[in-house]
């Protein structure tokens, strides 16, 4: 049996996974034995221990009861949840890095996957100044973003469709120079063979399909998942009954938005 080495310093989720494995090893239990006591699967235990799946409060409480560790894992779980990442976002990232197609719609700011380092830093710096996150959390966000962007360079690369509300290119972030470089990045992105970039202009009005940012992923088995977030949490949706209408709405949005050529022209004129 191959046993994956864990790096508890990688993230709060990894630290939780290391603690869970240590406590389990101390009792001489296998993952399946712990899972049986908790009422879940050994695969679930493995995913949490290796950081592929973040722990939920329910999972941590159940593990504490099974292991007889008081609230030790629950306290560590709270540390995981109090990071800069919205609840639900780590689950989304795990799917994003495997997706063969990524469809993005964004309002107000350039999507993370398309941001320059300077633009991304300006966004996180603003959040730190507002007291929304700490400097450590800002570093965590930027580090994860760098990993996500690097995953786009895999072979073969995923097909990325991006529809940006016009507000994304009109709102200056980080000052004129940072914004100019960001717009150049968008124009370069549009030239890649695996991308399509469109702007949804203001005059689309009520014909714009979404009022909130949305991401739709197509996985290798051609299944689809959707991700959307509010100010407090993100939600990954796998149920076809909910995902399929969102996919249809996205296609309608693409039909209503400017063509890629017209979109790039608008960006270059800004």
Category by helix and strand content: alpha/beta
CATH class of the largest domain: Alpha Beta
CATH architecture of the largest domain: 2-Layer Sandwich
The profile of the biggest β sheet is:
6 strands, mixed
CATH fold-level assignment of the largest domain = Endonuclease, Chain A
- Beta-strand proportion: 5-15%
Strand order of the largest sheet: 3-2-1-4-5-6
User: How far apart are the termini?
Assistant: 57 Å
Report Rg.
Answer: 21 Å
Mean pLDDT: 90
Q: How many helix segments?
A: 12
CATH superfamily grouping of the largest domain? Endonuclease Chain A
How many beta-strand elements? 6
Low-confidence stretches: none
Describe the overall structure.
It is built from 12 helices and 6 strands. The chain has helices at 12-26, 31-38, 42-49, 57-67, 72-81, 89-96, 117-129, 135-151, 167-170, 176-190, 240-256, 260-269; strands at residues 101-106, 159-165, 195-200, 214-218, 224-229, 234-237. It has 2 domains: 12-81, 434 Repressor (Amino-terminal Domain); 89-115 and 145-269, 2-Layer Sandwich (Endonuclease, Chain A). Helix 2 (31-38) packs across helix 3 (42-49) and helix 10 packs antiparallel against helix 12 (260-269). Strands 3-2-1-4-5-6 form a 6-stranded mixed sheet, with helices on both faces. The chain starts with 11 loop residues before the first helix and ends with a helix. 50% of the residues lie in helices and 13% in strands. The chain is elongated.
């Amino acid at each position: 049996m191959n046993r994956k080495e864990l790096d508890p310093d990688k993230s709060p989720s990894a630290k939780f996974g290391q603690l869970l494995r240590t406590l389990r090893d101390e009792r001489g239990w296998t993952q399946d034995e712990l899972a049986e006591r908790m009422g879940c699967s050994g695969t679930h235990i493995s995913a949490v221990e290796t950081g592929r799946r973040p722990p939920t409060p329910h999972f941590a409480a159940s593990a504490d009861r099974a292991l007889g560790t008081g609230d030790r894992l629950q306290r560590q779980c709270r540390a995981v949840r109090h990071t800069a990442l919205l609840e639900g976002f780590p689950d989304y990232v795990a799917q994003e890095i495997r997706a063969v197609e990524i469809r993005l719609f964004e309002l107000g700011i350039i999507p993370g996957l398309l941001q320059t380092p300077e633009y991304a830093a300006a966004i996180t710096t603003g959040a730190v100044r507002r007291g929304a996150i700490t400097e450590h959390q800002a570093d965590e966000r930027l580090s994860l973003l760098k990993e996500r962007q690097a995953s786009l360079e895999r072979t073969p690369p995923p097909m990325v469709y991006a529809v940006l509300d016009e507000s994304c290119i009109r709102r200056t972030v980080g000052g004129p120079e940072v914004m100019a470089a960001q717009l150049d990045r968008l124009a370069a992105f549009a030239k890649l063979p695996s991308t399509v970039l469109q702007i949804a202009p203001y005059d689309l009005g009520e014909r714009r399909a979404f009022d909130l940012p949305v991401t739709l992923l197509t996985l290798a088995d051609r299944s689809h998942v959707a991700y959307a977030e509010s100010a407090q949490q993100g939600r990954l949706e796998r149920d076809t009954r909910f995902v399929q209408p969102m996919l249809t709405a996205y296609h309608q949005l693409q039909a209503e938005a400017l063509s890629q050529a017209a979109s790039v022209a608008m960006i270059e004129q800004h």
